[in-house]
Amino acid sequence: MTKNGDLWKWIDAGVVHVTGADISKAHVDEGKRRFDEVCQSGKQKRLQAVDVALVDLCHPEFEKMAAAQWKVPVKEASYDLVECNFGLHYAFGTRETLVRLLTFASKCLKPGAFFIGTCVDGDALVSMAPETDTKLDVALSMEAAWGKVRTCPHRLVCLDIP
Ligand SMILES: C[S@@+](CC[C@H](N)C(=O)[O-])C[C@H]1O[C@@H](n2cnc3c(N)ncnc32)[C@H](O)[C@@H]1O
Whole-model pTM? Predict the structure, then answer.
């Protein structure tokens, strides 16, 4: 899930190739614009490509849909790192969507390589929210407009997962 917000971190870390996916065309386009801008300024260092598919990572067929778009095919056990910064909560709609995404991430990683994911602690968020009639639980979702293209349901993340 990326609009290349971590572009400079990848460059600083000496990353060579990034494969990504995002549901929003506006964000995929913005990611491309950021990468092109960096390349034009000659500051990309070792980073050769950021290959982002326009796909809903909660869709049951997302792997097939993304594979049809990625320029470099994703091979199993070939990635040094998988990251999902402030995007993981979108997959918390159902256990199935979360497990499907994490299973794919795990499949892509080399043995011993790392997954880094960041998200808001749903319980902490709820405890800070004002009293309301609305039923707040892990299934609560808020709609957010991303790039005015479509809406993505925001999910609360329960970190106390059995
Ligand atoms: C808060 S942004 C963070 C993105 C990334 N960490 C970055 O800095 O570029 C969350 C991203 O998740 C994307 N997103 C939300 N739901 C998604 C889904 N179901 N599949 C793929 N991307 C999704 C949004 O379009 C947005 O670009």
Answer: 0.86
Supply 148's token pair: 């005015």
Nearest atom in ligand 1 to the alpha carbon of residue 59 is 19
**Residue in 7, 92, 104, 152 to alter for ligand 1 test, most ligand atoms within 8 A of Cβ:** 152
Q: Which of 157, 2, 20, 152 is nearest to 95 (CA)?
A: 157
- Report which of 77, 75, 84 is spatially closest to residue 115, judged by C-alpha positions: 84
Q: For the segment 92-146, what is each residue's pLDDT rounded down to a tens digit?
A: 888 899 999 999 999 999 999 999 998 877 777 777 765 654 544 443 445 554 4
Domain boundaries, the chain: 7-155
Please work out whether the CB of residue 146 comes within 6 Å of at least one atom of ligand 1.
Answer: yes
Instruction: Tell me, rounded to whole angstroms, the distance of Cα 83 from its chain centroid.
Output: 7
Helices within the chain (DSSP H only): 7-12, 25-40, 62-67, 95-108, 122-128
